[in-house]
Fold these 2 entries.
Entry 1:
Amino acid sequence: MKTINIAIDGPSGSGKSTAARNLAEDLGIEYIDTGAMYRAAAYKALRDGVPAEEAAIEKMLENSEIDFSGGRIYLDGADISGEIRALEVSAAASEISKFNSCRSRLVELQRRIAESKSVVMDGRDIGSNVLPDASYKFFITASIEKRAERRWKELQEKGEDATLEAVKEDLKQRDYNDTHRKLNPLIKTKDAVEIITDDINIEEVNELLKSYIKR
């Protein structure tokens, strides 16, 4: 049976991760959270006392397997879905994701997963780099104002104190970093369908994605 790969890219706060997760659930295929893979690598480094140095992380990843099943993430065969959400893991993931060798190894694993089963994968460079031959490509985006408003509301619901302006400036910086990095920057590929989510809700985004896939 031929696998179907769906690539979803877009900037922070566009709603792409929620859209990818919902789409995978509706289609009955695996959702691959590429950010969680960096968290898994960071968790292993922290657990095993591996220093956040490129050579050490590269060596660790040579003997690491990361996979997804039923929406859960597995590291070397063990379910670590809960463990990777700790704050220290998040901080460590941000640190090791800067290493080119780390990114290369995880991209290799992402491609291997996509070869073995049908997936919806979201990120910054999925359509342009990780899965350039994906069956379907989407670029989900929204205005900086709308994305900042959504992220600010999320933070408020979590009880975190942040001003709307601060959230907006943070997103602007992320956008700049994502689109200006030398290695695989955030871009909309020519063959990707752009979906602007300013005036549509997540259910409407999901129906729109499915309508393109049915075609």
Entry 2:
Amino acid sequence: MSISGSNFSMSGLPDIPEDFGLDDVRGEIDEIDKQLLELFVRRMHVAGKVAAIKKRTGAPIIQPEREQAILKRVEAEGGEFGGGARTLMATLIDISCTYQQMLLYGDDGKLRKKFLTAGKIIKGSKIACQGTSGAYSHLAAKQFFGEDAEPVFFPGFRDVFDAVTEEYADFGVLPLENTTAGAVNDVYDLLTLHGFYIVGETDVAINHCLLAPKGASPDGIKEVYAHPQALAQCARYIQTHGFNTNEYSNNAVAAKNVARWNDPTKAAIASGVAGKQFGLDILDEGIQDIDGNQTRFIIISKHMVIRDGADKISLTFTLPHRTGSLYRVLSRFAANGMNISKIESRPLRGQNFQYRFYLDFNGNVHDERVCALICSLSTEMSYFKFLGNY
């Protein structure tokens, strides 16, 4: 029995016989799905033939005018299901283009060649960090490079990027996001501006302490100094105690100055390591609002390094301001069985309500499916940057 030709009632639900149950419907769906799968496989084989012809003729993989004509036709012919039909066809086209990319650019793709020639070992001993000794970035550098790591410190994030640009340092260590306060937007923007690669990452457990000069009393503190991220991470504690807040470029720098001022009404929020280093008392510790607070630090380099076992990939790109454009990109990761672990957006300067996207997903560029998808996206988008596999 079939209900494919059933009339629809005024409520929008089809009229079906009383004895027609879920098993009957599911049986029909299974049969349709079987046919769809057979047609999908057939379509992909035909896409392979298309790739062969495009290679011979030099035709581009992406042909926007034809694609839009197909989608417009499918939407019109889909009737009440036109929107869904368009989405389905768009996904099929995207999967087909990725497959063609894999077939056509086996060894010819520029990005693929960069992957093959990327370094596998992080070489060099010159490390740049923002802040001063005892900062969380210092802890991150030691955690990633080893306890003997002795980075050179710079005042701001931009200075760290400049140090790597000018080759005063081989690598930079910078915070990218915190589990409480979210993304460090300045670092995202500077990554794009400089075109550097992420070659590693490390998560640092954040244990903020209230640091003050020797002999200071918790009840006497009026002013606290810290980086805006630290102030945000301790917002509840600060509000409860009625402290006035003052933003600093770095927590450890704030601690250093509090020690220099030696004013019992002023305190810094920083690590216990910074407090010990600058001779400050720990008036309270673990003052962050959420237990288990962590900051993700990235290691940046001018040169691409893809170490054995790398399992996270970061990309940045822009998309046309069209309905469904982000969905179409994300659906291609899902279609290839790739897990997206993070997506972040940043506004494009001078372009109202236009955004640059940052995306992390699990994979390795030496996996053919992963490489094919990245290479395909890189040729389709007006702006695309591979940030790293680490």
